């Protein structure tokens, strides 16, 4: 049996870039490569959604992950065009490759029940846009600070979270 540490974002925010697109301020958080943040399973994604509320974010976080599901960068409140076309964006400071994303949307209230038709259409459109760029959209998580809702689990008949994740050789370093 191996010990798996809890997912925690570093408390110091010194590794972030402040940006502005037009009049839209946003930032890029770059985790330390010496202390990787791994989102191996759905419970890690839920913990990430609750942890980002401690970051300077208002509406959305787009986490970029490599093939081993290590977060390579997190975009805080990115402009819509960056979030939609992330695979084609050339972002300053984002040098580590990524092939998967998780979008975390912060809202005032996360409702009960199945996703709305608007949420369902939006999730599938974003997933198709990611696929066209060679990326895997792991999930879109909605949170209000108390609850977390997965659009992948609510909209996708076969979400990636049901697949067994087997980290590649070398994940024990």
Characteristic terms for this protein:
Cytidine Deaminase, domain 2, alpha+beta, globular, 7-stranded mixed β-sheet
Task: Summarize, please.
The chain is of the alpha+beta class. It is built from four helices and seven strands; from the N terminus they run ββαββαβαββα. It has one domain: Cytidine Deaminase, domain 2 (3-Layer(aba) Sandwich).
Give an overview of the whole structure.
The protein is α+β, with helices and mostly antiparallel strands and 173 residues long. It has one domain: Cytidine Deaminase, domain 2. The chain has four helices and seven strands; from the N terminus they run ββαββαβαββα. The protein has a seven-stranded mixed β-sheet with strand order 1-2-4-3-5-6-7. A hairpin with a 4-residue loop joins β6 and β7. 25% of the residues are buried. The N terminus is likely disordered.
Query: What percentage of residues falls in helices of 4 or more residues?
Result: 10-25%
Tally of extended strands? 7
Mean pLDDT: 86
- Total domain count: 1
- Helix-strand sequence: EEHEEHEHEEH
**Which CATH architecture?**
3-Layer(aba) Sandwich
What is the approximate shape? globular
How would you characterize the largest beta sheet? 7 strands, mixed
- The separation of the N and C termini measures 17 Å
- Radius of gyration from CA coordinates: 15 Å
**Low-pLDDT windows of residues:** 1-5
Q: Helix count?
A: 4
CATH topology: Cytidine Deaminase, domain 2
Sheet with most strands: strand arrangement: 1-2-4-3-5-6-7
CATH level 1 name:
Alpha Beta
How much β-strand is present in the residues? 15-25%
Structural class: alpha+beta
């Amino acid at each position: 049996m191996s010990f798996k540490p809890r997912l925690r974002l570093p408390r110091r925010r010194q590794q972030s870039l402040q940006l502005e697109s037009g009049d839209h301020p946003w930032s890029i958080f770059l985790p330390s490569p010496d202390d990787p943040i791994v989102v191996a399973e759905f419970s890690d994604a839920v913990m990430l959604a609750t942890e980002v509320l401690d970051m300077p974010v208002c509406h959305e976080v787009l986490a970029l992950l490599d093939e081993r599901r290590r977060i390579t960068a997190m975009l805080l409140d990115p402009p819509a065009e960056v979030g939609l076309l992330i695979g084609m964006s050339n972002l300053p400071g984002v040098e580590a490759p990524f092939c998967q994303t998780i979008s975390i949307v912060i809202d005032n209230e996360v409702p009960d029940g199945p996703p709305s038709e608007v949420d369902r259409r939006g999730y599938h459109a974003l997933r198709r846009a990611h696929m066209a760029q060679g990326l895997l959209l792991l999930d879109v998580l909605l949170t209000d600070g108390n609850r977390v809702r997965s659009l992948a689990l609510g909209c996708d008949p076969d979400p990636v979270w049901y697949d067994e994740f087997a980290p590649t050789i070398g994940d024990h370093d």
